[in-house]
Backbone:
């Protein structure tokens, strides 16, 4: 799969900084070039699920580096700005918290606007550079610095630079719920925590937790979880906890539209806050790791990564539960999709 990273840069300079530059005689003599906005690497639209600056990467040099930016006037200032004759691009690792300096002599790519290479194209103010290179193993799963310079000549004194951090992540643990595990007893419920990894690097040990809560059952004898959050007997009940595919709400802070009807993610079940221990969900932590995926679009099969146990009624009576699995509870991993660490299920024991 071809995964293309785009750096989008819109020319914006803070007004105060620009004003200081305009007050400088050197600035007047050079007739300032517009500076690119702080570069932001943006993943393909289908995977815009990670923190800013984090992009899906792959091992084995399979991530082409394509960069685009725009070159406009300085903020809202009235300024006669010359067009850039050259663009210089730097892409370097950060080390020890220091920011690598970009300059004409250290640039990885230099574009002569009047005689551009085959990988450079422009459409109005938008410029695109296909670097013809791939993000290699020394540039993934670490902080990189992408810098763009707009230059009148091949001299740093004629250039205006902007940069930001970029992180190509090659890991993505995905919560896949919990299944029954051998060893259950009348007083103990054993669950097999399941997950997979869609990244091309192994996931190191990560923190995780499984929560369970006795659900409000639907039907008789309540074998499924109630999801009718607009029902008259629950919609105003402050003791109700609502479990959705993206998280948990109290009934009082449930998102509703102007007419008062629920408007939010799919509901998996409901439970009573007062029934759980001290108003909190019962929980059990775990600490697994995951192997690398077989390759792009070939995630590892779902596998058991931990076994957790919960105390249940000693009389062994059946009940219905909402079971929530959460991976990377401490946000220790920088993964290219932060939206699939949660799994919420309605389970009958």
Residues:
């Amino acid at each position: 799969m071809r995964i293309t990273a785009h750096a989008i840069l819109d020319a914006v300079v803070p007004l105060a900084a620009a004003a200081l530059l305009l007050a400088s005689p050197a600035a007047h003599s050079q007739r300032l070039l517009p500076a690119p906005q702080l570069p932001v690497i943006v993943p393909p639209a289908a995977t815009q699920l990670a923190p800013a600056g984090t992009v899906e990467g792959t091992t084995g040099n399979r991530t082409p580096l394509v960069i685009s930016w725009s070159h406009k006037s300085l903020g809202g200032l009235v300024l006669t700005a010359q067009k850039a004759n050259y663009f210089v691009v730097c892409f370097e690792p950060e080390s020890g918290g220091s920011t690598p300096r970009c300059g004409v002599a250290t640039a990885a790519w230099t574009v002569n606007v009047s005689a551009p290479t085959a990988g450079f194209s422009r459409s109005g103010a938008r410029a695109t550079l296909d670097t013809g290179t791939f993000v290699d193993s020394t540039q993934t799963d670490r902080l990189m610095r992408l810098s763009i310079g707009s230059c009148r000549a091949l001299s740093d004194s004629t250039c205006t630079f902007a940069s930001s951090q970029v992180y190509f992540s090659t890991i993505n643990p995905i919560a896949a719920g919990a299944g029954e595990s051998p060893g259950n007893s009348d007083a103990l419920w054993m669950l097999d925590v399941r997950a997979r990894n869609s990244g091309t690097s192994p996931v190191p040990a990560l923190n995780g937790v499984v929560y369970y809560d006795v659900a409000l059952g639907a039907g008789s004898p309540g074998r499924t979880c109630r999801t009718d959050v607009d029902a008259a007997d629950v919609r105003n009940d402050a003791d109700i906890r609502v479990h959705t595919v993206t998280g948990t709400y109290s009934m009082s802070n449930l998102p509703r539209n102007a007419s008062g009807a629920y408007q939010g993610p799919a509901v998996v079940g409901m439970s009573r806050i007062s029934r759980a221990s001290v108003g909190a969900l019962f929980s059990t932590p775990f600490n697994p790791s995951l192997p690398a995926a077989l390759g792009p679009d070939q995630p590892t099969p779902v596998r058991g990564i931990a076994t957790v146990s919960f105390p249940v009624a000693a009389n062994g009576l059946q009940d219905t539960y909402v079971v929530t699995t959460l991976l990377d509870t401490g946000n220790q991993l920088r993964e290219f999709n932060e939206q699939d660490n949660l799994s919420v299920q309605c389970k009958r024991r």
User: Anything to note?
Assistant: Residues 1-50, 73-81 have pLDDT under 50 and may be disordered. The helical segments are 15-23, 25-30. Residues 15 and 98 are 26 Å apart (CA to CA). The chain has two helices and 22 strands.
